[in-house]
């Protein structure tokens, strides 16, 4: 069996694993509900997005169902990562506090950006929002990695997904902007 200590995962009892499972389900479920609402009620925005020319490698964002699933799953590691950093027995309390604040900031930015993604038809606004999410998740990954390796690695899917979304939207912005 794997040695959790060697991986950087602190020893947790069953209640703590249950707490992590519950918060992960809440984060993924709320993201999925928001995307479900978007798919059901924002048909004009979906039509506008599907009409935009995208880079050839941006096909993941073209398929709404795949992007909804990946977006929901990309945030699955955040609750566990934050809890691992919290449980880490370290004398670097400031680093742990920064990690907690940046984790909360990432979840807040993600939640607050949903209306932007659902309603904005401005590619520059969408790329700026995606860039802020990407930078926030990158900051969180680095700060958590300095506290606990496993915690930092758990944030990588979120960072990679946010960075991919930013690059696709930035590519769309450059392709679809009319020449002056």
UniProtKB/TrEMBL annotation:
Bilayer topology term: Multi-pass membrane protein
UniProt keyword list: Membrane, Transmembrane, Transmembrane helix
InterPro entries, alphabetized: TspO/MBR-related_sf, TspO_MBR
Highest taxon listed in the record's lineage: Eukaryota
Annotated localization: Membrane
Transmembrane segments: 17-38, 59-82, 94-118, 125-145, 151-172
GO cellular component: a single term: membrane
Main localization, broad class: membrane
Gene3D superfamilies the record matches: TspO/MBR protein
Protein family according to the UniProt entry: Belongs to the TspO/BZRP family.
Protein name, entry field: TspO MBR domain containing protein
């Amino acid at each position: 069996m794997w040695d959790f200590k060697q991986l950087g995962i602190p020893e947790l009892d069953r209640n703590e694993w249950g707490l992590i499972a519950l918060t992960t389900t809440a984060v993924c479920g709320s993201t999925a509900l928001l995307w479900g609402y978007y798919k059901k009620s924002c048909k004009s925005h979906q039509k506008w997005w599907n009409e935009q020319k995208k880079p050839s490698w941006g096909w993941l964002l073209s398929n709404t169902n795949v992007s909804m699933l990946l977006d929901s799953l990309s945030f699955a590691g955040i609750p566990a990562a934050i809890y691992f950093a919290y449980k880490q027995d370290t004398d670097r309390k400031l680093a742990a506090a920064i990690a907690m604040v940046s984790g909360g900031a990432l979840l807040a930015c993600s939640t607050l950006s949903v209306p932007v993604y659902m309603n904005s038809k401005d590619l520059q606004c969408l790329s700026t929002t995606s860039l802020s999410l990407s930078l926030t998740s990158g900051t969180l990954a680095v700060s958590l990695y300095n506290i606990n390796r496993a915690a930092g690695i758990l944030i990588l899917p979120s960072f990679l997904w946010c960075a991919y979304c930013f690059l696709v939207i930035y590519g769309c912005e450059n392709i679809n902007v009319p020449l002056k």
